[in-house]
Amino acid sequence: MKIRTVFFDLGNTLLYNQRLNSNSIRIACEKLAEAFQAFNYPVHPNELAEKHFQNLMNYYNLREMDYIEHSADIILSHTLEEMGFSHVPEEHILKSLKAFYASTEANWYLTDYAIDTLELLQNQNLKIGLITNASYAEDIRQLLQKYHLEKYFQSVIISAETGYRKPRQEIFDLALYSLVSSPAESVMVGDSFMADIWGAYKKGMHTIWFNRYAVSSQLMLPLCKPDAVTSSLKKVLEIIKTFEKIF
């Protein structure tokens, strides 16, 4: 079977972040609260930061159960409503979120061989797509622009814009449809065994588990085995050529 399309995950695949934890999120909430307070709302930044941090933690736990994505602006609006601020202008919401993500974006770095691999795949006339779980699409586009990645993708599917997170089949359906690709001629490359590998496996896609930054405690489903495993993106094209011989 000829492989025609390769989909990548973003976080801890093409980019990596080894500082994304509750402490870094708390710091980002503090930056958000400072930005919001600058609009002269009668709120103490520490109270807003703590309230939004708790709401985010609750939301992050919930979305890992139902795999439904709510955008960051909606989550912040709910926090503000709980603190008595309804109908906050969109400009204030967006500037506050900009401060939040400016803090977290600084911790992302380009994975070794990411650009080289995308160049190689592009030179092979393969279609390349991105499927990423993220609650703020603008943050993803900023990262793609910062690391000059956007030019490689013919399709960018972000859970914040679809309402569904991987491994939900709906987000894979949208990705395949966007590049007019069938599961049998498509490959998913990602670090999350549940989101990327299990999700793509259920869709009938080929899978490459990039485990360099994978969490060691990740659930490995007994009924799902990745078609290939690698700790280096440099191996992706070689693996794809192997797929074409054996599938």
Can you give a write-up of this model?
With 247 residues, the protein is of the alpha/beta class. 49% of the residues lie in helices and 13% in strands. The protein folds into 2 domains: 5-17 and 109-246, HAD superfamily/HAD-like (Rossmann fold, 3-Layer(aba) Sandwich), CATH 3.40.50; 22-105, DNA polymerase, domain 1 (Orthogonal Bundle), CATH 1.10.150. It has helices at 22-37, 45-66, 72-82, 90-105, 114-123, 137-146, 159-162, 169-178, 193-203, 236-246; strands at 5-8, 15-16, 109-110, 127-132, 155-158, 186-190, 206-210, 228-230. A 6-stranded parallel beta sheet has the order 5-4-1-6-7-8, with helices on both faces. A two-stranded antiparallel ribbon has the order 2-3. α1 packs across α2 (45-66), α1 runs antiparallel to α4 (90-105) and α2 (45-66) crosses α3. The radius of gyration is 19 Å and the shape is elongated. The mean pLDDT is 94.
Secondary-structure-based class equals alpha/beta
List the helices and strands in order.
EEHHHHEHEHEHHEHEEH
Mean of the pLDDT scores?
94
Strand order of the largest sheet: 5-4-1-6-7-8
The CATH architecture of the largest domain can be named as: 3-Layer(aba) Sandwich
| Count of β-strands | 8
CATH topology description of the largest domain: Rossmann fold
Give a short account of the largest sheet. Answer: 6 strands, parallel
Question: Which regions are unreliable across 5 or more consecutive residues at pLDDT < 50?
Answer: none
Report the radius of gyration as a whole number of Å.
19 Å
How far apart lie the N and C ends?
Answer: 6 Å
3D shape: elongated
